[in-house]
Design a protein that fits this description.
Largest sheet: 5 strands, antiparallel
Oligomer: single chain
Order of helices and strands: EEEEEHHHH
Number of helices: 4
Strand order of the largest sheet: 3-2-1-4-5
Shape: elongated
Strand content: 15-25%
Radius of gyration: 21 Å
Number of strands: 5
Helix content: 40-55%
Distance between the termini: 57 Å
Mean pLDDT: 77
Structural class: alpha+beta
Number of domains: 2
Low-confidence stretches: none
């Protein structure tokens, strides 16, 4: 089911800015229903933009927005902190033979690349509700050029870290 953005209600407001509940409507059997996000967003989508909604066919008022809910961000951030902690431990224990391992695969660099890519792509997903790069680009191209560029640059930095760490491992293997 496709829901259409209709309204934004204030979620929180202070000197740092305002965040909003985003309200969407959907129609089942000719009857209009509304659903709002369970978190605040600082970005208000264009009027009548769409989002996927799943609802209970027996009770259409029981519905949920697909994608972009806060639990995704919690899992993403929790997973990244876990991975980064493990990478720090691996890097710490690899320090004793550091002179011999100058060009070996660098877990820390690779992990930071994964961190940047997944965090920034996760933020883009949270703000747009889609994993499609084309849809994300279209939303940011029209409305939010600067935040989109910053997140894109950070994704490119992450990709550089990933490629660099793999290149180091290949270079080390060829020379030894």
């Amino acid at each position: 089911m496709i829901g259409h953005f209709t309204d934004a209600k204030i979620y929180h407001q202070d000197e740092d800015g305002t965040t909003y509940y985003l309200v969407y409507y959907y129609i089942v059997n000719g009857q209009k229903y509304e659903i709002s996000t369970s978190f605040g967003s600082g970005v208000i989508p264009k009027q009548d933009s769409t989002r996927v909604i799943k609802y209970n066919p027996n009770y259409p008022e029981e519905a949920m927005l697909v994608g972009g809910e806060s639990f995704v961000l919690l899992w993403l951030v929790g997973g990244m902190f876990t991975v980064i902690s493990i990478l720090f431990l691996i890097e710490t224990f690899n320090k004793k033979n550091k002179k011999e391992k100058v060009h070996r695969f660098n877990f820390f660099t690779f992990g930071m690349g994964i961190f940047f890519c997944s965090l920034c792509f996760g933020i883009l997903y949270m703000m747009t509700g889609t994993f499609s790069s084309i849809k994300i680009f279209n939303i940011y191209r029209l409305n939010f050029l600067i935040p989109g560029l910053i997140l894109t640059v950070l994704i490119l930095v992450g990709l550089y870290f990933i490629v660099f760490s793999i290149y180091q491992a290949i270079f080390y293997k060829k020379n030894n």
